[in-house]
Amino acid sequence: MLYKDSCNRKSNQQNLGTIKSSNLCTEIVEFTSPTETAVCNLASIALPRFVREKGVPIESHPAKLVGSIGSKNRYFDFDKLAEITSIVTWNLNKIIDINYYPIETARRSNMRHRPIGIGVQGLADTFILLGMPFDSPEAQQLNKDIFETIYYHALKASAEIAAKEGPYITYDGCPVSKGILQPDMWNVVPSDRWDWPAIRGMISKVGLRNSLLVAPMPTASTSQILGNNECFEPYTSNIYSRRVLSGEFVVVNKHLLHDLTEMGIWSPVLKNNIIYDDGSVQKITEIPDDLKAIYKTVWEIKQKTVVDMAVDRGCYIDQSQSLNIHMDQANSGKLTSLHFHAWSKGLKTGMYYLRTRAAADAIKFTVDTSLLKSNTERAG
Question: Which residues are marked as active site?
């Protein structure tokens, strides 16, 4: 579900014509015509890699942090995110130049408009590493700060490339050429973290090498490779089975496993009860309330909050974002209300997938009932 008015009113490709479609995953909003086939040139940034421990030199930093224990001694490295965003922007431009194009209309579109789409993965992991519940004010602020950083430094890198190679062919007449950036289209004033007047001045002199820059996409496969949760989504469960060609195996939220092991309360009984509760930890009394808040699943987070966080980062996304909605018992009333809220807030994409759960629980063959009964501490 996309909202065509927002997609067009907030597009930097307005000067090309009306955008009439998106891609399958609803994050790509690019102009197409009979002579041009739009191309998405994408890369995702693994956000958990920018969580650092205070006082630990970068060269001595562990390859990967796990769990929320110790989060008070951690911070998010925005300067490194800025550096990597710049590198990604340069690399995607190289891909546009050297790529193989199976059809001429795709090559023509890419060379004329040079759109790229930078996304993220592991936003939920990042919140956990910093001890932030997904729906907390701190997480909501970090969400905005991350995407402001990505958009700003993608603009900066694109302008630097334009200074060397010239702006993209159809730059003249686009909103950015008139000094209108994505936050302006949302009537949002960026923070003081980065020098926005400077980047505006730079762009006014040299232009941009790319018509579009940011498009948070689904990252189901690449997230698995790097061990992160998908794109900007909350965890759907803390224990689940994954079926692949070689068979089916159980996956446990590594952060939760680490924290419960460090606390000395992880056990077969506890694992059994989490499975019984469909991957939720909210009814397990051994787990403290602060951890319960951090390890809420998407089914335990208000979807209005999920939409509002999409709106918060939306003013730094010049394409769109692949936003999934999770509703336990979806109906037309709930969906209509949510979509009108998303539309009224100015989102471009209101929904990619609508995820629901079965009305009746499946028989839990993997639950050991003897262990379940032995856990007298479990909240009913």
Answer: 23, 25, 27
